[in-house]
Amino acid sequence: MEFTSIHKNLSKELSYYQHYFSDKRLKRSFFEIFKALIFTGKITISNLARFMADKNPHYVAKRYYRFLSRDDLPIKKIWKHFLELESYKVHEDAEIIYDLSDISKDHRDKLDHLFSYEKICKVHDGSENAIKFGYPIRCAGVVHKEQFSPLLFRISSYEDESFVSENEWILNDIDDIMSACNKRGKLILDRGFDRSVILNHLISKKYKFILRMQKLRHYRWGDKDRSFSVEEIQRHIVPYKNNKPISGLYYTQVFLTNSTDPLSFIIVIPKRKTKKTNRMKEPLYLLTNKGVKSKNGASKILHSYLKRWKIENYFQMLKSKFEIENIRVRKIKSIEMLLTIIMIATSIAHDLYIKLNKKDIKKIERLNQSFSYKEKSYILLNLFRQIGIILMAKRKENLFHNYKYNVVFNKLFQQGTYG
């Protein structure tokens, strides 16, 4: 495998977006920021400029700032085009994972510094279970060939004048995804989306979904003319021993209190105990509009839902490897543009990875022995970053000369190590 072919594929993928920039200078800035992001793994403009410029990086940084601060950046058009391009990865039974996260700024930052960010708002940082200042982000991706590939990555603010409700954001995103995919695939949603507005919308639009439920909801069950709580249904379908539920997988048919559409309700009683408290883990409740008629069908639904963790790995990679919470641009449109470029970069890395043969994959894995990864396609991003470090050390060489790329890349593959 030669690095020239990978570099050509990068240029080819980027060419799909070049017609959105009529000005050559804008097109140049977009391509340079993309390449610098790929080879540095950094999101700060100063790092990107230092990588691209041999001399006077502050002039390059100013050019990037001017590009990102423009009000006419075609971000929404790129979002739509990207979603249409990636929709081929969604087949009839593919898992489309959707979740919310946040970009939170460090609590040590001074308040006057924090409020210099446009429309910054309070967000809930789930990792620390604390309220911080930052921006909410919405992300969706498809499990394509057992790897997570992004479909949608958007940032917003609760302080925006057009903000109505979080539910409106979610429903619009889901409609955009399912429209681009022609209702193919099934949505995988966590229990934070157990809201009547969202659930009724999914059922009325006939979108396929698997939703983790909370205990609070009531359902119509059996031939009784009343609603049952989750615990009541569990008592009826799960066998107990010594007043404790027996571990296993159980399913039944239920109806929402305001709907006649049949839904499958799955209860998972885990075997393992938690490490911290040594208590049994809480039961897992799943609701789907896909008919479940056997234990094997319920097991497939559970297996599909467990893939939801791939989007958490994606968030972790963005925050640890790309350091998106270290973003320093102030305008929300500038942040949107940088995150859009990252979304495209991670998607291209996924596409390049699945085209590799087993021999090349083993070589790349050997080069990335010190890199812990949970999605295999991320090791290609780390390889780009290591090559970027080597190229940065060779300041006198032309960074984007294909011959120089090949020399560095082939030496790495012959040695099998960076030593």
List its salient traits.
two-stranded antiparallel ribbon, alpha+beta, disordered C terminus, 13 strands, 419 residues, 44% helix
Uncertain stretches = 412-419
Supply the helix-strand structural class: alpha+beta
**What is the overall silhouette?**
elongated
Note the run of SSEs as H and E.
HHHHHEHEEEHEHEEEHEEEEEHHHHHH
Helix content: 40-55%
How many helical stretches? 15
What gyration radius follows from the Cα positions, in whole Å?
Answer: 24 Å
Largest sheet: 11 strands, mixed
Mean pLDDT: 84
The strand count comes to: 13
Beginning-to-end CA distance, first to last residue? 21 Å
Strand percentage:
15-25%
Description:
The chain is of the alpha+beta class and 419 residues long. The chain has helices spanning 3-15, 24-40, 45-52, 57-68, 75-86, 111-114, 166-180, 196-205, 230-237, 295-306, 309-320, 332-354, 358-367, 378-393, 402-415; strands spanning 95-104, 121-125, 130-144, 147-155, 186-189, 209-212, 218-221, 227-229, 240-241, 244-245, 248-256, 263-269, 284-288. Strands 1, 2, 3, 4, 5, 6, 7, 8, 11, 12 and 13 form an eleven-stranded mixed beta sheet that branches. A two-stranded antiparallel ribbon has the order 9-10. A hairpin with a 6-residue loop joins strand 11 and strand 12 (263-269). Helix 2 (24-40) packs across helix 12 (332-354), helix 2 (24-40) crosses helix 14 and helix 5 (75-86) runs parallel beside helix 12. Mean pLDDT is 84; it is low at 412-419.
